[in-house]
Write a structure and sequence with these properties.
The complex is a heterotrimer.
Chain A lengths: L1 H15 L3 H21 L2 E2 L9 E2 L3 H8 L1 H32 L6 H13 L2 H12 L6 H6 L9 H4 L1 H26 L3 H9 L4 H29 L3 H6 L11 H10 L4 H36 L1
Antiparallel strand pairs in A: 1-2
Chain B lengths: L6 H11 L16 H40 L3 H4 L13 H8 L2 H29 L8 H13 L6 H10 L6 H26 L2 H9 L4 H30 L2 H6 L7 H6 L9 H21 L1 H13 L1
Helix pairs in contact in B: 2-13, 4-13, 5-8, 5-10, 6-8, 8-10, 8-14, 9-10, 10-13, 10-14
Chain C lengths: L1 H24 L8 E8 L2 H16 L3 E8 L1 H13 L7 E5 L3 H7 L6 H5 L11 H6 L1 E2 L2 E2 L2 E6 L1 E6 H7 L9 H11 L20 H10 L16 H17 L9 H9 L5 E5 L3 H4 L11 E5 L12 E6 L7 H11 L2 H11 L16 H6 L4 H10 L23 H16 L5 H21 L2
Parallel strand pairs in C: 1-2, 1-3
Antiparallel strand pairs in C: 3-10, 4-5, 6-10, 7-8, 7-9
Helix pairs in contact in C: 9-10, 17-18
Classes of the chains: A mainly alpha, B mainly alpha, C alpha+beta.
């Protein structure tokens, strides 16, 4: 009996061993600072007022929940992520379908299309703000001139939307790549069989292609959302969160509280609230996604 | 090189799922269908041209901003900001010279160092972990995977102040190794997640068979498994490279002079006296170039790696 | 199997060793010389200083200079955090007259008076008096001015000539409005360019001088917030209205830099902003209107003058390890000789203005700056941060309030103003919200004995 259990324990450790360094490293790098954040969130601490360090319990959280701007910013964050992910996925699907047929210069087209995903985000955001959306010198207004658009100020009139344009421009190629990978892994004989069966192209797409692509699209949505939660550079460069807080998302707002307001306690409380909310939403979303991934894996 | 027959398994699964494919086996005589088929093919060709044109248009729309940035980098400052935009101009290398003279070289080196070392660290830590979560799974694999992914959900801004305090306390502010550690932590969860799905592609019997032959686990992994999953590892590495090279938030807050990276150096070109858009374009071009080229060169790997990973 | 573990463990160990081993060394390559790390704002004058740094290093072979230059907001955040946390990351920091006194009081900056007195030929008495005063705490200087600025109005002489308008030397804001109206030709040029970008250093700088000259104030003597007072409402309403009607498109995202581009590309007839803007509009390389710019005093309403006072200056954080080497650099870059060096090497129009009286005595500089030098100096001298408006105030500062909360308060208020400029909010609603923010800060001062 004892021998058996020690054996399996040894085996258990042998299996665990390759995992442990990564696990310990991740815990150390992500959880320790987070615990400190929780600790700070119960204190009043203004960096530029020496001697302001004081335990205040949950007062910072009260402040966060009373702050109407925080709610506005949280809403912006949701719009930003959901809007960007959905539109990029749709556009990505369209582009992937276009690229899935052979035509002259397909390689070049793909190369051009993936470039926005590779460009440094800071450079991309600057590019959109100055070269594209500038009301006087920008290309967008130049192109729209024949349609009667004068010196329209895109960034100040639609700040959140222009940030999203930059993000969609960056993430559509990523979605396209993923979905294209899905299309190319699609066995031709299945489609052929469907065709022989007399299914029209739309039916083929709906009944065969789309179900096959589902996992790829889901993967794209999850990965996209994960990275978009942390959107910072685009807002920082394009709108600084303004006018008002109209285009600020949670990371940017918290950054402002910490590095402009120097209210470390408040910023920490906002961080904790954000993390809690993100994890709840992410858990729900992930369960859905995981079901399809894990389900497939376990079935195989 | 490793186009595995394994995917056949999933293929048939897909077929079984779909109602239309039920009668796939039935074949028909095709003699009387030849003519309409030809017509269809001609019509097809017309459509194909339209699709190709559309694809090209889309590519140009997406690429245009980048092209414009590169063009602007070769302009004099006065030609960079005009209404209407200047298309024909006498090119100059003045902006690139100015950018290089201002020490962008060091920041590019810093970026390269942080990117390469952190990606190596991710692979060193991540491959065994992915292995332990797939081929020889530990108990509670799901929970561990969940934990890794949840750390990715953590908005990094929530921890920036504590990080600053810690890093300041141990004297690692403005040190490239700080970024390396953080980038490793930042990319590790996604890398493990991706690589795990590649490992799952490998049939467990393969590992068993190799172990049976008397090879140690390490040898078996190295000889049999790693070659099989190498496209996936390459794709993962590329993703890590892209994200660490382009990272801005940590870099802007935790570095200053010695460890400044390329994206942060761009902010320094926004002066209080105007945008100097041509010079900024030159700097942006230089900062973006390495990753763009790497991505272009390795795009096939990327597609293959992603598909390899997502099938399962 | 055990072998595999051992190999793997040693791999991890090597990686860790590499991490910890190199961590101590920091960045690649280091020399025996003392390194002075300087954090500055990436304005052109500072870029020039970086270019000329080799002259300093030649004369001080034992000192190695390292610069980090960042945009204003970024630099400010970084410098404040690193100084407040006593990180010792920087040996020289660029601060302004907003920070210097507060930081001196907190013990974050070194007293530089002793250093200055022991440096022959440095001549503290030569600094512009209002600037020197604004960088002093209890009679000692805690940072040394690199350049100073006030505010004035720039206008296009050619457009005014064509329209038959003569610009008075001391215009009122009412006059400016009527000129802006006449000269506003959308498509060609707008009437006036005014900042609208959020940020206490952006829209609030010109706006606060307008509030001051309309007789408004942020707080009364007892720290009661007065942003909802009729005077402030009138002033902000005036500003927002002016820029919305006759101002640049996209005003809510236009700051100093953007206005500079607009004006120097010929897209605005007037521009009310910092005196340091001359380096943009007078530079033939970037400006299309260099020969046609005229300058007059900042417009007023109720006050006699309405000037702001701002200076970028250099200080040494107390946490710095080598203050002596840091002082060597500061005393070089803020010296009379440095100004002459810039003139000789880079051109006299690039001299950092507004810090030293003697700058305005240099014949070559007088020649290039004859259009604006006298006016700049006059504006600097008239700026009175202690009595910025009609009624007394409990704070000091013309275009800012010298309290630590102002960075945050100002930013939030500026976001409201910006929203009003963008037309997303009424002026009344914006000021109502701003008043709430101001009240919260005012309360903490009322509670103090």
């Amino acid at each position: 009996m004892t021998k058996h259990s020690t054996l399996s324990r040894a085996e258990g450790w042998r299996r665990r061993a390759p995992l442990l360094p990564a696990l310990l490293f991740t815990i150390l790098v992500t959880q320790v600072p987070f615990l400190l954040t929780v600790y700070y969130s119960t204190h009043s601490w203004n960096l530029v007022r020496p001697g302001s360090w004081e335990f205040v319990g949950l007062q910072n959280y009260l402040y966060v929940f009373r702050d109407s701007q925080f709610r506005e910013v949280a809403m912006n964050t949701v719009i930003l992520i959901v809007g960007t992910v959905l539109i990029s996925a749709l556009l990505g699907l369209g582009l992937a379908l276009l690229l899935n047929r052979s035509f002259r210069g397909r390689g070049v087209v793909r190369t051009l299309l993936i470039t926005p995903f590779l460009i440094t985000p800071v450079a991309g955001a600057l590019l959109w703000k100055t070269a594209m959306f500038d009301p006087v010198f920008g290309i967008v207004n130049f192109v729209l001139q024949p349609f009667g658009v004068g010196n329209f100020a895109w960034v100040s009139q639609f700040p959140l939307a222009t940030v999203m344009v930059d993000l969609i421009w960056r993430w559509t190629p990523f979605m396209m790549l993923l979905i294209l990978a899905g299309l190319q892994s699609m066995p031709e004989d299945v489609l052929e069989a469907g065709r022989v069966d007399g299914a029209g192209p739309i039916a083929l797409f709906r009944e065969l292609t789309l179900p096959h692509l589902r996992r790829f699209i889901e993967l794209g949505v999850v990965l996209g959302a994960i990275y978009l939660v942390n959107t910072f550079g685009a807002i920082y460069m394009m709108t600084s969160g303004g006018p008002g807080v109209e285009s600020a998302n949670l990371p940017f707002y918290i950054y402002q509280r910490a590095f402009l307001g120097f209210e470390v306690g408040q910023a920490a409380a906002m961080g904790v609230v954000t993390v809690a909310a993100t994890i709840v939403i992410a858990m729900l979303a992930l369960r859905l996604i995981f079901k399809s991934f894990m389900g497939a894996q376990e079935a195989a | 090189m490793t186009d595995p027959a394994l995917s056949g398994d999933t293929t048939s699964a897909t077929v079984r799922d779909t109602p239309v494919a039920g009668s796939a086996a039935q074949s028909r005589s095709s003699a009387d269908e030849t003519r309409p088929r030809q017509r269809a093919r001609r019509k097809h060709r017309g459509a194909a041209v339209i699709w190709a044109v559309l694809a090209w248009l889309a590519a140009l729309v997406f690429f245009f901003p980048v092209l414009w940035m590169v063009l602007t980098a070769f302009k004099y400052e006065r030609a960079a900001y005009t209404d209407p935009p200047t298309l024909w101009f006498s090119p100059t290398l003045e902006q690139f010279q100015a950018v290089l003279a201002s020490g962008v070289g060091t920041t590019l080196l810093n970026s390269a160092f942080a990117t390469l070392v952190s990606t190596t660290c991710v692979l060193v830590l991540g491959i065994p972990a992915a292995f332990a979560l797939s081929l020889r799974p530990v108990k509670k694999t799901k929970d561990v995977l969940f934990f890794f992914l949840s750390t990715k959900m953590l908005p990094i801004v929530a921890v920036i102040v504590p990080l600053y305090v810690i890093v300041n306390r141990i004297g690692l502010l403005d040190n490239i190794w700080t970024l390396i550690i953080l980038y490793t932590g930042m990319n590790l969860p996604i890398a493990i997640w991706m690589m795990r799905s590649f490992f799952l592609e490998v049939p467990a019997e393969l590992l068993e068979a190799a172990s049976m032959d008397g090879a140690s686990l390490w040898t078996a992994v190295r000889r049999v498994i790693l070659p099989l999953v190498s496209p996936g590892i390459a794709a993962t590495a590329l993703i890590c490279v892209i994200f660490s090279w382009n990272e801005f938030f940590f870099a802007v807050n935790l570095t200053a002079v010695r460890a400044q990276t390329a994206p942060v150096s761009l902010v320094g070109f926004i002066t209080g006296e105007g945008l100097f858009w041509a010079r900024l374009s030159a700097a942006s071009t230089l900062a973006a170039l390495p990753v763009v080229i790497a991505g272009w060169v390795a795009q096939n790997k990327l597609v293959r790696g992603l598909s390899f990973g997502a099938i399962k | 199997m055990r072998k595999s573990l051992r190999i793997y463990a040693s791999l991890v160990a090597v990686a860790c060793l590499a991490l910890s081993g190199c961590a101590g060394a920091g960045a690649l390559g280091s020399s025996a010389a003392k390194t002075v790390t300087i954090a500055m704002v990436s304005n052109p004058q500072m870029q020039d200083a970086i270019k000329l740094a080799s002259h300093f290093e030649e004369r001080h072979p034992g000192i190695d200079l390292k610069f980090v230059s960042l945009s204003e907001n970024e630099a400010r955040a970084k410098i404040t955090v690193s100084t407040a946390m006593q990180s010792g990351q920087f040996d020289v920091v660029m601060v302004s007259n907003y920070e210097t006194r507060m930081w001196a009081e907190n013990g974050w900056l070194r007293d530089l008076s002793g250093y200055a007195a022991n440096t022959p030929g440095y001549d503290v008495g030569d600094f512009v008096p209002s600037i020197r005063e604004s960088l002093s705490y209890r009679g000692d200087m805690y940072s040394m001015p690199f350049y100073g600025e006030s505010s004035f109005l720039m206008y296009r002489k050619d457009l005014f000539r064509k329209a038959g308008i003569t610009m008075p030397e001391h215009p009122t804001w009412q006059q400016i409005t009527s000129y802006a109206k006449k000269l506003h030709e959308p498509g060609n040029h707008v009437g006036i360019c005014l900042r609208g970008k959020p940020g206490w250093g952006e829209v609030l700088a010109p706006l606060d001088t307008v509030i001051n000259t309309f007789g408004g104030r942020w707080y009364d003597e007892n720290w009661n917030a007065r942003l909802d007072s009729p005077a402030v409402k009138r002033a902000v309403g005036f500003y927002v209205n002016l820029v919305r009607k006759y101002g640049e498109p996209s005003a809510a995202t236009t700051g100093f830099a953007e206005c500079g581009t607009q004006f120097s590309q010929g897209n605005a007839a007037m521009w009310y902003d910092a005196t340091s803007a001359v380096s943009i509009v007078e530079n033939p390389k970037s400006s299309r209107v260099a020969d046609e710019v005229g300058y007059v005093a900042a417009p007023t309403v109720k006050t006699e003058h309405s000037n702001w006072l701002y200076t970028w200056s250099l200080g040494i954080p107390t946490a710095s390890d080598n203050p002596d080497a840091a002082w060597e650099f500061i005393s070089w870059v803020t010296s009379k000789d440095y100004i002459k060096l810039v003139g000789r090497k880079l051109g006299w129009s690039r001299v950092p203005p507004g810090s030293r009286m003697s700058t305005y005595e240099i014949p070559q500089y007088r020649k290039v700056s004859e259009d604006y030098a006298a006016l700049t100096l006059q504006a600097l001298r008239r700026a009175d941060p202690e009595n910025p408006t009609v009624k007394p105030v409990p704070y000091s500062g013309a275009q800012f309030l010298q309290i630590p909360e102002f960075q945050d308060l100002g930013t939030r208020v500026s976001q409201q103003i910006s929203a009003a400029i963008a037309g997303k909010k009424s002026v009344a609603a914006a000021l109502e919200q701003a008043q709430q923010y101001a009240e919260a800060v005012g309360k903490t001062y009322q509670e103090q004995p």
